[in-house]
Design goal:
Blueprint (H helix, E strand, L loop, with lengths): L15 E5 L4 H12 L3 E6 L2 H13 L4 E5 L5 H15 L4 E4 L13 H29 L2 E6 L12 H21 L4 E8 L2 E2 L4 H4 L2 H9 L7 E2 H12 L10 E4 L7
Parallel strand pairs: 1-2, 1-4, 2-3, 4-5, 5-6, 6-9, 7-8
């Protein structure tokens, strides 16, 4: 693990986790963290090659997992994905709705770019929550975590689609928390700052740009995927049993200024 983050065993033996966007970055780190705590994991992504790599990493550490290819913007595929988790492992206890896109450098006022942002980043989260909650309601328990962003709480002048969808994820999270609070289902969100992942790799390929990006965070560095994953698994665990409806900021102090 990077930056001193170690995998914590939250005693999830016999539990089942579903992670979307798990072919790399934060999703892969979370899938590995769930497995390290004993949960069986359904690894999901549109990137089958990356998903297979995540699957191999989990199995390599002695964990149990399966891969399911899914475009979260397609409600039929989402329904099949959740059904696959239940079919493979018999239940669904935790869901990390992490799949998302960031159209870096694109004009998000363009109709097609805007529509794709909404489809994956916002509708995809709603489709996942809807199907996951149906299973969890039948069980009488469950925990859902959605990936938003610090741009879901603040904003930027360059990405209307990204900002709008990530604000929407926070709204969906609060809605779900209230709707299912008495049914034993907790719903939270993580709001990462700038994290070092394949998605942000183009930003930091140039060493000078890396210095600029590092300097944007009060702690003077980018976050690591494992630091977000640690928060996700904690939010799903019994250690966070009274936490719901919360957008957890993990940004090295960026929103404190």
């Amino acid at each position: 693990m990077e930056k001193g983050v170690s995998m914590v065993d939250y005693g999830m033996n016999g539990k089942v986790a579903l992670v979307t966007g798990a072919s790399g970055g934060i999703g892969r780190a979370a899938a590995l963290a769930f497995a390290a705590s004993g949960a069986a994991v359904l690894v999901s992504d549109v990137n089958a090659e990356g998903g297979a790599e995540t699957l191999a990493l989990i199995e390599g550490q002695g964990g149990k997992a399966q891969f399911f290819s899914c475009n979260v913007g397609d409600p039929a595929q989402v329904k099949a994905m959740v059904a696959a988790a239940v079919s493979a492992f018999g239940r669904l206890d935790y869901a990390f709705n992490n799949a998302g896109i960031n159209n870096l450098g694109a004009d998000e006022y363009d109709d097609d770019v805007w529509a794709r942002s909404l489809s994956v980043n916002l509708s995809g989260v709603m489709y996942c929550m809807r199907e996951e909650a149906e299973v969890m309601l039948a069980q009488g328990s469950g925990a859902i975590v959605n990936t938003s962003s610090i741009n879901g709480l603040t904003g930027n002048g360059a990405q209307p689609g990204y900002v709008a969808t990530k604000h929407g994820v926070v709204g969906l999270t609060r809605h779900g928390a209230l709707r299912w609070a008495k049914a034993g289902i907790r719903v939270n969100a993580v709001c990462p700052g700038v994290i070092e992942t394949p998605m942000t790799a183009p930003l930091v390929a140039n060493p000078e740009m890396r210095k600029v990006i590092d300097g944007m965070t009060p702690m003077g560095r980018m976050g690591q995927a494992e630091e977000i994953a640690a928060a996700v698994v904690w939010l799903c665990s019994d250690q966070a049993s009274f936490v719901t409806g919360h957008p957890l900021v993990i940004d090295g102090g960026s929103t404190a200024v």
